[in-house]
Design goal:
CATH topology: Helix Hairpins
Number of strands: 0
Family: Belongs to the universal ribosomal protein uL29 family.
Structural class: mainly alpha
CATH class: Mainly Alpha
GO molecular function: structural constituent of ribosome
Order of helices and strands: HHH
Distance between the termini: 25 Å
CATH architecture: Orthogonal Bundle
Radius of gyration: 14 Å
Strand content: under 5%
Oligomer: single chain
Protein name: Large ribosomal subunit protein uL29
Pfam family, one: Ribosomal_L29
Keywords: Ribonucleoprotein, Ribosomal protein
Helix content: 55-70%
Length: 79
């Protein structure tokens, strides 16, 4: 994985159920909001973090959509 949060790799996101993915999505959106606010007020130290969080959000949306279309399968309850 080139850019993004190390703990949100595609292989790890595949192991999450849909509720956990939605929770991670909500956390990432809140973080992006806070980063944009810091950027607007001139307090942002790491501009690369904005790009990483946006990619994490896109990655989660992609996995959710692929599961909706049947391209990927959600992990079974037995795992």
């Amino acid at each position: 994985m080139a850019i993004g949060t190390k703990d949100l790799a595609v292989t790890e996101l595949d192991g999450f159920d849909d509720e956990r993915l939605v929770a991670e999505l909500k956390k990432a959106k809140e973080e992006l909001f806070n980063l944009r606010f810091q950027s607007a007020t001139g307090q942002l130290e790491s501009h690369g973090r904005l790009k990483a969080v946006r990619r994490d959000i896109s990655r989660i949306y992609t996995i959710l959509r692929e599961r909706e279309l049947g391209i990927r399968t959600a992990p079974s309850a037995s795992e």
